[in-house]
Amino acid sequence: MAKFINEAYTTICSERTLQTNDNGFFMDFVKLIKKHAGDSWIDNEFGKLKSDKERIRCIYLSERTQKPIVNVLSNVQEVFRTKSAGISQGKRLEAEKAFQKGDLRSSLMLYSQSVLRSPETCINNHFDSGGTLSLALWGRSEVLMALKEYSLALNDIQSALKENLPNIFKADAFWRMGKCYKAMGEKIRATVSFDLCEKLLENNKKRLEELHIDREMSITVDLATIKIGFLHNILNERWKISLTWNTVILTGGHPIFCLIPSVDGEVHEIYPCASRKIQINESEKLGKYAVANNDIRTGETLVVESPYAACLLPEMFGTHCHHCFERLKAPVGCPDCANVAFCSMACRNKAVCSYHKYECKFLDLLIGSGMSILSHTALRMITQNELSTCLEIYKNKSSERVYSLCTNAEKRCADDFFQRTLMAVFLLRCLQKAGYFRTSGRDAIPSEDEFCVGELLLFHLQMLQFSAHEIYETRKTADCCFKDSRTISIGVGIYPTVALFNHDCYPAVTRHFVGKDIVIKASRPLKRNEIIAENYGPIFTRKCLQERQICLNSRYWFQCQCNACMFNWPTIDGGLDNFSKRVKCPTESCSYYFTLPLLKDSVKCPKCSKEVTLTQQYQSLKLCEEQYEIGSQLMNENRPKEAIAIFCKAIDTFHRISCPPHKETHTAQEKLQLCVASFGNVSETLVRRN
To answer: What's the pLDDT score for residue 258?
Structure first.
């Protein structure tokens, strides 16, 4: 297997887990400090250090590195996209023109940009007398009502009133609120709102007549819109419900409503996010790994886990909520920066009260460094907690499950440790300047508490390289066609339970996401004590042995020895069609498989020596393949729930009477994964290819 080791590619992969943007300045910082330190010092002094505690202190205190590091870090300062009342006003005026032309989609987008760029009320009185935010929210509410998005419109109206909406709009505000409540089926609140409007219009006979007509007029709205709006306002608790929004809503479509499932069976007593059918074992060769504690059927939900920490990719800042990762429709902004957007005030408040208050004014600097999403997640694991909590975690690391995850520290070279320590140093300096430690950040040399946090950062940067998961959504065409769907990464999260699952090129589970929560389902049946493995990226049906091994060796530093690798199973496009089908000996205790075709149905088993008839096995295998076709047809008809039931039953049957590799079964498993993912993060943003 030595032929699959590519040291140069391994180095590149390792560096990419720190800096992904070639235009970033971090690797230039590394080269500068390397020049001062010298290769000999890095290898023979720094490289001999045994702990993260020693490394983080050495890099600051050594005569070789202290001065150049302090000189560079003294330049760290706030760099972020500021609010602009002028830009906000301009976008609002463009939005008004688009609305007058009937272009609701463009109008909504422009109003949202106006909301996000607007400073808080009265911060800049040169534009709209300081009321750019209230006017942007007010204008957007009209567009949302035209789109029959009454719940979101109501939020904007109420927010506009809180932001001192000019008095000339007050009567209309209660009027609009009455219409929204009426459309949502909340008659009492609608009556109260209309009454308030009537009181404000008591001297305007013409407007009162118009109001009376509106009060009596029925509003037709789709039941799903009412249901979603109600749940979004009332049940906005991430552990209970997730709403993934579809961007086609901007032209009148409906959001996709996704419930977070529960695990099947009893809940695990040690791992509360997992089923009791899972057991975590540990060995010197495999480390910690998951096995079946009982028989598991295809389709069973084994883990539903919220992330310990998660970060949105920067390229998704304009399309997804910075906090919950749901698609944006009527976003609200941070009070200070114009970098990020949130789907609701609830998400904004959670973010601003925790991690975002420390990251907000340094986001452009962090992005400009070119740092990877993993490096950002390493920082988020700190910023999501206050300093006192963070120091408590440091003292009790042994009781925190995330700090027992693999770092492969024993395999790291001096240069790798050096780069990761410098990233920890940079992130620590950002925390100092952001006021995380309740100091001015004037002194770049850390205090003892700051050294402890730096040590945690260095651990995170090692652990996340091997344990983090990409968070993704499925993008489809407006007709929800599976054929044209694509999986797109939107962020990264660390899931301490799922991180314990080992890799297999023929995985036993499939994963999808609902918001930030990961859902693990069985993609094939498992017997008690069988390993429950997931897939780290290279799956045997799509990548040949050499590609898989190079990828796994370089990215995850291990040599895969699963059956697909040991027996070099062919890919779907590389000969799997020609692989002989097999059926199991019908004798219950026998594990022999007959290779098809056979000259006759009745044969003597070479293992158990019994005369056996294989007619039923033939028929069952043929039935499985027929069921796969039925499941595929149901997919084409956009009936994923029914397709899942067909696929699961047929895949269970196949593994009872046959064994992989088998092209039809693996194709069915891929389709099953698509169907399952359709109940998670989905957006209808793709245009159908002709």
So the answer is: 57
The pLDDT of residue 164: 94
Question: End-to-end distance of the chain based on CA atoms, in angstroms?
Answer: 44
CA separation (Å) from 113 to 9, 82, 86, 223?
42, 13, 12, 29
Please tell me whether residue 320 adopts helix, strand or coil conformation. Answer: strand
Cα torsion angle, 300, 303, 306, 307, sign: negative
Burial of residue 120, with CB atoms counted within 10 A of its CB: 0-12 exposed, 13-18 middle, 19 or more buried: middle
Domain 85-234: homologous superfamily in CATH:
Tetratricopeptide repeat domain (1.25.40.10)
pLDDT at 311 over 70: yes
Whether the pLDDT of residue 234 is over 60: the answer is: no
Contact 464, 18 (CB under 8 A): no
Which of 168, 643, 115 has its CA nearest to residue 330? 115
What is the DSSP-derived secondary structure letter of residue 127? S
Q: What is the pLDDT of residues 499-523, one digit of tens each?
A: 999 999 999 999 999 999 999 999 9
Report yes or no: 310 and 491 within 8 Å, Cβ to Cβ.
yes
pLDDT at 233 over 50: no
Mean predicted lDDT score pLDDT of the chain? 91
Across the range 475-502, mean pLDDT stands at 89
Q: How far apart are CA 128 and CA 96, in angstroms?
A: 15
Strand spans (E) along 495-630: 509-514, 517-522, 582-584, 593-595, 602-604, 611-613
The pLDDT value given to residue 686? 62
How far CA 435 is from CA of 60, 359, 360, 387, 440, in Å, comes to 20, 10, 12, 10, 7
Residue 480: predicted pLDDT = 67
- The two three-digit tokens of residue 258, written as one number: 């996704």
pTM check: above 0.85: yes
- DSSP assignment string, 154-223: HHHHHHHHHTT--GGGHHHHHHHHHHHHHHTT-HHHHHHHHHHHHHHTTT-HHHHHHHHHHHHS-----H
Residue 12 Cα distances to 9, 15, 40, 480, 651, angstroms: 5, 5, 22, 38, 39
